């Protein structure tokens, strides 16, 4: 994936700063929103990747879309624009999420089922994961309708 090494460095620095300012969870929510929004919007992905669109305009677009984010997250937009790296924002967000989960000892578990998991079943799976690994897990349910 393009920009992964740089994204890892940015994400690590962001997490350290967020931890220092005690806003790591808020920034996590921002990064989750950013990641999902970019993933679901071809227009936004194209805009961020476009060499024709001025970085300052990209920054304005991001600030308009994500107007309720933490000030640190807004600073990330500014930094990436300043360093001409705004095109890797989605990778930075995903790396941050991964580092955040690792830092609080939460792992990710992908559960593939034919039908969506009920809350009851999620609780049982969560308990089994904790029993086996000693760590909490975020559960992602993938539906595989045969």
From TrEMBL:
InterPro entries: ATP_synth_OSCP/delta_N_sf, ATPase_OSCP/dsu
Cross-referenced NCBIfam families: ATP_synt_delta
Taxonomic lineage of the native organism: Bacteria, Pseudomonadati, Bacteroidota, Flavobacteriia, Flavobacteriales
Record's keyword terms, sorted: ATP synthesis, Hydrogen ion transport, Ion transport, Membrane, Transport
Primary subcellular site in the record, as a coarse category: membrane
Gene3D superfamilies: N-terminal domain of the delta subunit of the F1F0-ATP synthase
Protein name: ATP synthase subunit delta (OSCP)
One Gene Ontology cellular component: membrane
Location in or out of the cell: Membrane
GO terms of molecular function: proton-transporting ATP synthase activity, rotational mechanism
């Amino acid at each position: 994936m393009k920009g992964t090494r740089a994204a890892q460095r940015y994400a690590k620095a962001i997490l350290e700063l967020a931890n220092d300012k005690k806003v790591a969870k808020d920034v996590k929510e921002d990064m989750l929103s950013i990641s999902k929004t970019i993933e679901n919007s071809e227009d936004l992905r194209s805009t961020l990747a476009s060499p024709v669109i001025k970085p300052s305009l990209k920054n304005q677009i991001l600030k308009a879309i994500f107007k309720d984010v933490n000030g640190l997250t807004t600073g990330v937009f500014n930094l990436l624009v300043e360093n001409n790296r705004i095109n890797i924002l989605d990778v930075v967000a995903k790396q941050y999420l991964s580092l955040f989960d690792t830092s609080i000892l939460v792992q990710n578990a992908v559960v593939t089922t034919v039908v969506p998991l009920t809350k009851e079943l999620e609780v049982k799976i969560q308990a089994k994961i904790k029993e086996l690994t000693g760590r909490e897990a975020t559960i992602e349910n993938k539906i595989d309708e045969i």
